[in-house]
Amino acid sequence: MIDAIAYKFQTGVQWVHLPEKYGNWRGVYNRLRMWAVDGTWERVFTALVAQADAEEHLSWAVSVDSTIVRAHQHAAGARKKGPRPANPPNTPSADPGAV
Q1: What is the tens place of the pLDDT at every residue in 16-31?
Q2: Most CB contacts within 10 A, which of 13, 15, 25, 92?
């Protein structure tokens, strides 16, 4: 089950394209969701981090590569000079027939 979940996230395949050797994709997906909801993944991660920390196998170095941190596609068109002025209110004409 864990191999199936790891394979899905490592390769990025859709759930329906999970290889048959991992069993029914719906079962894998449902188990992943159940474990996420009931906190199983959090407990596993906490235990693994505690074990690695006790064995001094952790080095907390974080690196961010700016080539993969991108702005949203709509961020390029943002106004630079403050908010856009509001539209003037529409006032009805005194004579609806006059154009």
Answers
A1: 999 999 999 999 999 9
A2: 25
CA distance 77 to 80: 9
Q: How many CB atoms lie within 10 A of CB 69?
A: 7
Look at the pTM and tell me if it is higher than 0.85: no
Burial of 31 from C-beta contacts in 10 A (0-12 / 13-18 / 19+): middle
Task: In whole angstroms, give the CA distance from residue 4 to residue 10.
Answer: 10
End-to-end alpha carbon distance in the chain: 72
Q: Is the pLDDT of residue 3 over 90?
A: yes
Separation of alpha carbons 44 and 55, rounded Å? 17
Q: What is the DSSP letter of 86?
A: P
